[in-house]
Amino acid sequence: MRGGLVALPSLLLFLDLCCFFIVSASTKQDQVYVVYLGGHSGAKAGEEIHEDHHTLLLSVKGSEEEARASLLYSYKHALNGFAAILSEEEATKLSERREEVSTFRSEGRWAPHTTRSWEFVGFEEGLRGPDGSDWLPSGDKSGGDVIVGVLDSGIWPESRSFSDEGLGPVPARWKGVCQGGESFSTSSCNRKIIGARYYLKAYEASYNALNTTYAFRSPRDHDGHGTHTASTVAGRTVPGVSALGGFAAGTASGGAPLARLAIYKVCWPIPGPNPNIEDTCFEADMLAAMDDAVGDGVDVMSVSIGSTGNPLRFADDGIAVGALHAARRGVVVVCSGGNSGPKPATVSNLGPWMLTVGASSIDRAFDSAVKLGDGMVIMGQTVTPYQLPGNKPYPLVYAADAVVPGTPANVSNQCLPNSLSTEKVRGKIVVCLRGSGLRVEKGQEVKRAGGAAILLGNPPAFGSEVPVDAHVLPGTAVTAADARTILSYINSSLSPTAMLGRSRTVVDVRPSPAMAQFSSRGPNVVEPHILKPDVTAPGVNILAAWSEASSPTKLDGDHRVVKYNIVSGTSMSCPHVSATAVLLKAAHPDWSSAAIRSAIMTTATTNNAEGGPILNGDGSVAGPMDYGSGHVRPKHALDPGLVYDASYQDYLLFACASAGAQLDRSLPCPARPPPPYQLNHPSVAVHGLNGSVTVHRTVTNVGGHGARYSVSVVAPVGVSVKVSPRRLSFARTGEKKTFKIKIEAKGRSGGKFLAGSYAWSDGVHVVRSPIVVLVA
Description:
This protein has 17 helices and 38 strands. The chain is of the alpha/beta class. The chain has four domains: 31-105, Peptidase S8 propeptide/proteinase inhibitor I9 (Alpha-Beta Plaits), CATH 3.30.70; 117-363 and 513-638, CATH 3.40.50.200; 371-500, Glucose Oxidase, domain 1; 680-775, Immunoglobulin-like, CATH 2.60.40.2310. Residues 1-28 and 127-136 have low confidence and may be disordered.
């Protein structure tokens, strides 16, 4: 199925095995298909387009009544196409029509990719003003006329993060609506939330009528994910907030606190034993939302959603198609990269016309000391508000030594539901390992079996990355190295014990940022000549607003209510970059979406806040396959010096070369389109280098008059990189210059991607581009 989000209210929120979405539950012979017809010529009105779509449907349906009943959506603002309920035979017939670009099933394989973070972004800028006014978003006065559309699970409008106090009138160009529904009236919108819609026709075509016990039939958020992402990108500055238990206390703010929000609810609970945990999103619904968002007048689209399973070719990828046509209209589309790392080739949202974001840590921790019976003290992390009674040691047991008979050996240490023996864990601290299942559900299992607390350890793959959770009992989490130390102590002691200390919020943790191990990695499996992800941003333990209809763990039986919650995932990093795009759109309203994407990428940094290289969560040095161009720096991006621009026609030619895909019938593919790596992109990736290639790039001066740039190169090991000319002079702003990059293999790469970079500098600006090469 093809529906999903990317910071799961379940997945990265509490889940380690990041993507286990189930295929469509529909057993009907007819399915929802998207029929993509390319772009609009602009000559027809919306009603005419709708009738054209109806006529196409009539060519395969038995009657006009049947054709009208089968049509779910008619896409008429940004892209040309429609969604309809079709049989496989009818879909095949439509795919043979001359007008058709692609016809694909709308499935549920898409899902969401689940305070201090913006302050930390300032540290990465190298800006440490005494009062923070140089770089804190709360001090930013721009963005008030910029509209950001958020595709997600809806919004909790009563949150203080969405107050419209002090905001001016809604921008006159806004054409959207505030769609009422269950527990959501038109008065739920204001000068902050200026529009809201919801889409579930494809969802209900697959799962039948929505179960309103688990979701509101309206833009209101029952899940929490959408509220969290919306407040991260554009939440107002709210002092005195914290997560459950008082953790991460301080001032919450979105990156663009004056920007306007337009909410497009496209993600809904998957029916099953615990619908609270998993949401799904269908392409037909998402495309309708993206099409409306462009017609409504949004400037930036924030999409913390990605596909599960094997990535789709661009012509069959709903988000890629929608983003392409949004970019054509100047809308910047920012997407999460996924939570399936650290395994390579797992990144999603792969089109070069969208900005794909990885996740990294910030400099905040929630320290909780673990004192073992032998006197050793280990520092864990937790945001659970519960404490073990009495300042005393408790017996310590390893889950694998306390399971019920019949528990599979390979998951005996996972504390999966109903796996623990009450007799063996009652009153004890239970050591469980991450890996399979939800982290918070492991704590629930320990509580069910009568355990006193959970001590959650990382497996080796997760290294020192410790996402925190508001467990339903006392507990803490530790790194992989500390988990090994604890298990060694248990094995060497006849009566192992431990004490869990009270947790406290600690800031200025170093080194930071580090790449999250869960963050999906490159290479780009659809088109390896485009580097993905593009950048990284804060996505670990992020505090933001939450739905008061959802508990902090989302588990059945957890009835706690919170206004703000701490969540991890690339869904959290995506809105950080969306906010950066908002600030650039406010400062440079005439820039194209490609120019804004370029500015964000070429000003990103590959260094941590201490000046050393960004590391992965396991301690290894990170590279372009982990973070793309580097960690986002919003203030630097406002003044990039040079940008790499690209047009809609450039992207169509790229698609022709990449997969022979003609994405718009108005522009036929040439017999020999330029290779994919010739797209004027801010990064360079060459896959299967045999001998040498010459890559062409064009930069546009967006700085001052009389700018003079020279280039510096860091060549990948075993590869020669020569840039010519080595100097570029610009007489005026807006002037373009073209240069060549000759890349030549000097040896074999051993099947590994080799990384380097080149950078243009005028003494003020540094315009850096990563180079990634795989030698044949």
